[in-house]
Every structure is written in C-alpha cells, then in structure tokens.
Amino acid sequence: MLGDWTAAIPILTYHSIDSSKSVISTDVQQFSRQMEYLAETKTRVLSLIEAVSLLKQRSSIPSNAAVLTFDDGFRNFYTCAFPILRKLQFPATVFLVTGYAGKDNHWPGQSPGIPRLELLDWQEAREASLAGIDFGAHSVTHPNFAHLSHEDLTREIVDPQQIICGRIGVTPKIFAYPYGMYTPVAEEIVGRTYEAACTVEMGFAVPDSHPHRLPRIDMYYFSQNNLFQWFGRSAFRRYVGMRGLLRKLRDQ
C-alpha cells in the first residue's frame, strides 16, 4: 500500500527520452514502465500549474500526486514520450529553449558528455499544446545566469514568454532556470514575469517552498535501475533526500 505524501508534491524532471544512457537520458522503455506504474497505482498526475496553485493556496493536496516536467524541449519528447502521455491522459510541462527550437542542443556551455540531440520545432509544439501539453520557458539560449548582465537576464527571461505565446498561442506561466542556476536579480525578473519557477534542487515541493524556487526530482537517478517501484513509499522519500544531500555536498 502506498504511503501518505500529504502536503508534498514530487515534481519529476526528465530531459531526453533516448537510449544513450547519458546523464540527461531515460530510455523510452524505462519511461514507459514508469508511466504505467503511475497509472497502475492510480497516482493523480497534476499539471504543474495546478500543483503550483494548490501549493500557493495551501489547499488540500492529494496524497498520491505527481507532476511531470521535461527540460530543454527535445524532439524525442514528441516522438517517444508524448504518445505514452496521450494514451494515459497524463498532463506534462515542457520547458523550451526558444532560440534553439527546431535546431539541436549545441548551445554555448553545453557539457561535452551530453549527446547532440534535435529539439522540438514550433509545429510539433503547437500540436502537443493542442493535445493538452503545457509549455514553459527555459530561456532563449540556455546560458548560465550567474554570468549575465541585467539587460541580458531580462532578454533571456522575458523574451521566451512573448515568443512562445506568438508561436503556439498560449502564454507560458512557469519558468525553469537553465542549469538550475539563478541569482537574486534573475529571480526578481522571473518573479515579475511568471507565476512560478523551477530549479534543479533535489526535493519535494511543499506549501512552504518558494514559488520561484521550486525543487524537483531529477529522474536521472531512476533511469538505470528499478527504484521507481518505491514511488509513493517512504523508501522513495528517503532515497530522494539522500540524493539531495549528496548533491548539496558535491556543489559546496
């Protein structure tokens, strides 16, 4: 029997759905098994904006909730993940790097260990949007915000909202910081522009979480094992906590 996760929402973070076994990759079969597990356990998959609203209002949060997010907007979301989500009628949010839509992820600062992969084009994004997928902003060029001027930060944060609205007809309400990096200035601009924002801090979102610094759960730690079967149990919470602590120690 699944445990009680009252007042805590796991926001799951995927990047690429591919078989390269890179640090941003989850194999499509593994992804499919994880989604089927959520369906079998009757997990209530919320849209990210719905989860944000519940957290802000401190409303009654379902004890079996989850949120699905995908960073960078890889084309394999459309070809691999989207059909599975549509079949199961699961909502999800995809964060787009607007300046690279229809291109690939070879942006400045990209780690050499990351595979070069195609990104969604605007037609694919529009089709997914019409089918219920939400789109958020992930900057224009995926830079490290710690190195940018106020002017450049404004462009990277504000412009994607206007671009996405113009391209797919829906104004994005949530931002995801590239590399999870943010500064006080970046957070201030994001706070004026978006209802919420996501980091890469490992943990559960709770009512006390800052809405513009939401923690998430990196699915890399579940991509090469069967530990997702712990989802909804105390063992899952302990594992996420351990991984979060190790990441903090690594980044010190």
Number of strands: 8
Structural domain count:
1
Q: Which series of helices and strands comes N to C?
A: EHEHEHEHEHEHEEH
User: What Rg do the Cα atoms give?
Assistant: 17 Å
Indicate the mean pLDDT: 94
Query: Outline, from the CA principal axes?
Result: globular
CATH architecture: Alpha-Beta Barrel
- Into which percent range does the helicity of residues fall? 25-40%
The CATH homologous superfamily is named: Glycoside hydrolase/deacetylase
CATH topology heading: TIM Barrel
Pairing-aware structural class of the strands and helices?
alpha/beta
Distance between the termini: 38 Å
Tally of individual helices = 7
Query: In percent, how much strand structure appears in the residues?
Result: 15-25%
What does this structure look like?
By secondary structure, the protein is of the alpha/beta class. It has a single domain, classed as TIM Barrel (Alpha-Beta Barrel), CATH 3.20.20.370. 37% of the residues lie in helices and 15% in strands. It has helices at residues 28-40, 48-57, 75-88, 122-130, 150-168, 184-193, 234-251; strands at residues 11-14, 44-46, 65-72, 93-96, 134-137, 174-176, 196-202, 214-218. The longest helix is centred in the middle third of the chain and has 19 residues, at 150-168. It is globular.
